[in-house]
Amino acid sequence: MMLESLARLRVKIWLLLIGAVAGGAAVLLGGAALFWGVIALALVAALIAQFVTFREPVLRPAAPGPDDPLGLLPPQTRLLLEQLPMPVMLLDGAQRILFANQSMRDVLGPGLDTKRVSAVLRNPEVLLAIAGAGQGEASNVPFTLPVPVERHFQAYAARVSLSPLVTVLLLHDLTMVRRSEQMRTDFIANASHELRTPLAAVTGFIDTLRGHAKDDEVAREQFLGIMATETARMRRLIHDLLSLTRIEMNEHVPPNGRVDLEGVVRQAAAALIPLAAEEGSTVIVEAAAGLPQVVGEHDDLMQLFQNLIHNAIKYGREKGQVTVTLGRQDGQVFAAVKDDGEGIAASAIPRLTERFYRVDVKRSRERGGTGLGLAIVKHIVSRHQGRLSIESKLGEGSVFTVFLPAAPAENQAKPPLPEPVTEML
Ligand code: ADP
């Protein structure tokens, strides 16, 4: 706007000056009538200039500054690129980062400016594509960032200016697409495998009841009981598979709510009281005073603690005690679920969060397990940028501890979240 009105003013001044000079000449040469004619023409021209549109070039060189050493980006363009939801980076001829927008910083971390791209993005294919783009060969390559959560991208690199040499690198996030492809394949393979056993049992009992046990009332009652158990298992399995699918889909989207962890743990424990009562077990929740809220999503955290407390009841001692302790450590809030069961062998601990992994398949099935509970816990912890620690000693019981980042005090800027780690002890 500013640039346009300045240009317009300049044109008007020129036109008036020309008018005045021509007017003077006209007075000298031909009298007052010619003078007023020329002045009127100049005024009409100035009026037309008022309606002429003056265009500002989009990538007009700006003044070089500490943020923009080559003076490439006018402030408006910088703001526009900064707010683009797509990760964008500009590089100079030596592959140093001249500019990286917020989305790029979300992917590669803060403090990118002036660093060499190879120091922050160690993928050889992408670096080759950038080098090729510097030579004028635009290209796009797929690549994967393995940490903190695996993400898949298509990287586009192209030269946007020759002097000075500037290359643009643009990333297209394909994580959701890849994940849904992978999940669809896994879902079909795992679900069909796990459903086959109960389905075979139910089909077998139907055949028996139609055949030789047709008139056997005792057998009928017994078989119907087993069929009810098997169908309940299939229902739980489908429920867990769908939960896992939903959580995995959202895993790379950090939650932005604030949750009172003690409230969630107490709610989860209360929901499991009937199950604990069946086993003759008790569940106790002990919380330190004045715990801060955590950054999280209520429903996910409910599911996480229901799974852990349910496992502690299932695999704990008969008539045993489950204790959940909440406290605070290094800017995080933790909740430790402790049971007094048989414990887990050290060699099995690293595999516990794998889908369908069970230490004792028979026992898990008898207790109504699906083998997905801890996989769900792992994904929820990862989405919350938290940490899961598992400690166990054979014969003494197990402790599953979840650490979650404390929410900043209200009206205070968010501190950067720590990197998620799933730690197995
Ligand atoms: P499941 O549905 O079989 O319980 P999980 O994923 O919740 O599946 O747990 C995986 C396996 O880890 C279980 O089958 C069990 O062998 C073991 N496990 C989980 N929690 C405990 C615990 N508190 N004590 C002993 N073993 C446990």
The dominant shape is: elongated
Q: Write down the domain tally.
A: 3
Q: Order of strands side by side in the largest beta sheet?
A: 7-9-10-12-11-13
List bound small molecules: adenosine-5'-diphosphate
- How many helix segments? 13
CATH-level-2 architecture of the largest domain: 2-Layer Sandwich
Structural class: alpha+beta
Unreliable sequence segments: 1-6, 51-61, 420-425
Largest sheet features:
6 strands, mixed
CATH class of the largest domain: Alpha Beta
Order of secondary-structure elements: HHHEEHHHEEEHHEHHEEHEEHHEEE
The percentage of residues in β strands lies in 15-25%
Number of strands: 13
For the termini, the CA-CA separation is 63 Å
Quick check: average pLDDT? 84
* CATH evolutionary superfamily of the largest domain: PAS domain
Write the CATH fold name of the largest domain. Beta-Lactamase
Q: What is the radius of gyration? A: 34 Å
Q: What is the helix fraction of residues, given as a range?
A: 40-55%
Can you describe this structure?
48% of the residues lie in helices and 19% in strands. Strand 1 (88-91) and strand 2 form a beta hairpin. The protein has 425 residues and is α+β, with helices and mostly antiparallel strands. It has helices at residues 2-30, 32-51, 75-83, 102-108, 117-120, 124-134, 175-210, 217-250, 261-271, 273-279, 298-315, 361-366, 373-383, and strands at 88-91, 97-100, 139-145, 151-161, 166-173, 258-259, 282-287, 294-295, 321-329, 332-338, 387-393, 397-405, 421-424. The protein is elongated, with a radius of gyration of 34 Å. Helix 7 runs antiparallel to helix 8, helix 8 packs parallel to helix 13 (373-383) and helix 9 (261-271) packs across helix 11. The chain has a 6-stranded mixed beta sheet, covered by helices on one side. The chain has a 5-stranded antiparallel beta sheet with strand order 2-1-5-4-3. A two-stranded antiparallel ribbon has the order 6-8. The chain is built from 13 helices and 13 strands. The protein folds into 3 domains: 2-173, PAS domain (Beta-Lactamase, 2-Layer Sandwich); 174-253, Signal transduction histidine kinase, dimerisation/phosphotransfer (DHp) domain (Helix Hairpins); 254-409, Histidine kinase-like ATPase, C-terminal domain (Heat Shock Protein 90, 2-Layer Sandwich), CATH 3.30.565. Residues 307, 311-312, 315, 339, 341, 344, 352, 357-360, 364, 369-375, 398 line the site of adenosine-5'-diphosphate (ADP).
